[in-house]
Amino acid sequence: MKRIGILTAGGDTPALNAALAGSVTRANQRRIEMIGIVKGFSGLLNPRVPHVHLNPLYTSVPELDPVLGGSILGASRDYVDADDTVTVQKVLERLGRLKVDGLICIGGDGTLNGMQALGESLPTVLAPKTIDNDLGLNYRNEADEWVRHIQTDGEYAYTRAPRRTKFDLEQMVNYVTPGYATAVMVSASGVQRIRTTAESHRRIAIIEVMGRHSGYIALGASYGQPDILLVPESPLNPEALIERIKEIYELQKNVVIVCGEGIVDDDGRELGAEMASTDPAGNHILSGASEALRSLLIARLGDEYFISRRRNESARAAIFTRKVGHTQRGGRPVLFDRFYAAQLGGHAVDMLVDGKCNAVAVLQWDRASAFHVADIPANDFRDRWGLIHARLMHESFYDPKLMRPSELGIEYLLPIFTNSIGPDDTEAARGLFDPGNLMKPYHSVNTDISKRIRYLPE
Prior knowledge:
Layout: E1 3-8, H1 16-30, E2 33-37, H2 40-45, E3 51-53, H3 85-97, E4 102-107, H4 109-119, E5 124-128, E6 146-150, E7 156-160, H5 180-201, E8 204-209, H6 216-220, E9 228-230, H7 238-252, E10 255-260, E11 274-278, E12 284-286, H8 289-307, H9 315-318, E13 319-323, H10 335-353, E14 359-366, E15 370-377, E16 398-399, E17 404-405, H11 407-417, H12 423-429, H13 436-439, H14 445-450
């Protein structure tokens, strides 16, 4: 294998450049050229395929900095539709003109679904990334437990059959994805900062974190010590929630609640209801769980509850929401994410050299050897109908009565976060107040990378 193409797809994460750097470093060692596709699958849909030679003379370009968040190649949520055979053939032809012998896609479950269109015609592997931590399996045969139903509109819906496998942390396929640790650090820090406002003004704060239908970020945000944790995998019990809020508020005159954006009611309906519109990857857009939860609390608690205690003039004034939002996706990755993103990126190169095709580099964990990289066939992620589903947090990680992480949930988090932040991460924080930041304009890496972009001839 002499030349490999590489792209970053889906939403951005803090660890994309680290994964790119790991791949290019390994390619340099193996004397393989690396061609970066600009803007993910969108670049392949462009007839001229904008691309960057990432290691001329087997030396990484200086713009490729593993501590820089995001992707120097850019990313998009466009994908290649496997049913669109005409487009698939055009993409394969363009990759042939680039003379690449294999393709590395850095992405999550959407990217894994998207690359299936190419995996049978070109050696293609995936290096995982997603802040949601929803790329993987709780155990090897989990994908076989999905059940498909036909709806009245003719579309299919998928639900989970009851679990019939005893769960253990060592069974997890892809224990954690790069980007998750940094997103949790940002979320947990946000919880701590909102806490002091809630304390000072005797208020109830609802903090919404990302993750869509998976509660991993919410689970990790427990490091910020919220009073109540709500995750999508456990349906909301309004009566129990109100009772718990009152207990805490009477004791400490403030309550901090963390909720995942995909939390559901007893009927499985999302509080932040899915809108009719979707993003380019086909994911329905969520309208806001925290605001829906706030409306519920305002109605259930009422103005008199706060007025009688002389703590606020109304329930609307006492209860407020904040979304951590896209700050979870950006910025410098912590040591854990940088290191393992690079390891997985490098392993993806080795997989192609070793003849692997349509396979996924994964980060495994066991009690004896801790974290280590491995790989599995992408087919293991597919259900009986060929669809790859986002991993949901295992329900045993959450205690619905205490509304906090369970003992097993805590055990899951500890290997990831105990040493996730390096000394250089804390030192980097001092750079925010570099006097030069006040005088020098921001210099975007895009400016430098654009000078390196080349195109296929028309």
